[in-house]
Amino acid sequence: MTASQDTGATPRPPHQVLDESDIARVVTRIAHEVVERAKGAEDVVLLGIHTRGVHLARRLRARLAAITGREIPLGTLDITMYRDDLRMKPARALEHTEIPPGGIDGRLVVLVDDVLFSGRTVRAALDALGDIGRPRAVQLAVLVDRGHRELPIRADYVGKNLPTSLREAVKVQLAETDGRDAVLVGDRDYAALSSQALAAGRDPGSGDAPDAEQPSAPHLPE
Q1: What's the Cα-to-Cα distance from 128 to each of 76, 83, 111, 167, rounded to whole Å?
Q2: Backbone angles phi, psi at 211, to 5 degrees
Q3: Distance CA 46, CA 27 (A)
Q4: What is the pLDDT of residues 32-85, one digit of tens each?
Q5: Measured between alpha carbons, how far is 72 from 54 in angstroms, rounded to an integer?
Q6: In this predicted model, what pLDDT tens digit does every residue of 170-181 receive, in sequence order?
Q7: Is-contact 157 138, C-beta < 8 A?
Q8: Rounded to whole angstroms, how far apart are CA atoms 82 and 113?
Q9: Which pairing describes strands 168-173 and 15-18: parallel, antiparallel, or unpaired?
Q10: Measured between alpha carbons, how far is residue 100 from residues 52, 55, 130, 170, 180 in Å?
Q11: What is the pTM of this model?
């Protein structure tokens, strides 16, 4: 565990655990693993889970094309209405589910997401998948597995296993949405502390909140 267990400890600002080159290497490695495990990936279909999972799926598709010389079917999956915590979170806009040409029936579907946490996002994705077809098999590829599973779900392809405490937030940043590629880990309380300091007219970089980096919003639990 990297977070302090002392409830009185100063919340840590986010620190970077993966950079752009790390993420590129991870995607390339996962692509090779998919080809090896799927014996050439001839019947593989990629489905990116909105939002950052879609961008990662597109990158994975490009790597697979470079390795196999074939275009791998790619689709997107919105799992918003399949979540079991809709009443617990603010309303969010629906994204677009796009079924790739040829569908998913009888194919090996690889779901792609950024962070695997409780497993509830993946459970919702499996429910959504059942409404659009019947694949031969389903596998899961994630950039980061941070642990703390609440459901019996595991990833088949993992970019980085990242042990965390429940006090910590994991934030994946991708160039398509955030302007850069990075994975950050920091205390959840740091964002709230910085917001309070700014509201009070104080420098969040003084005292309890170092100004090394302004925190990003934490990745919502799955």
Answers
A1: 11, 10, 11, 30
A2: -100, 25
A3: 13
A4: 999 999 999 999 999 999 999 999 999 999 999 999 999 999 999 999 989 776
A5: 14
A6: 999 999 999 999
A7: no
A8: 16
A9: unpaired
A10: 18, 15, 15, 30, 28
A11: 0.81
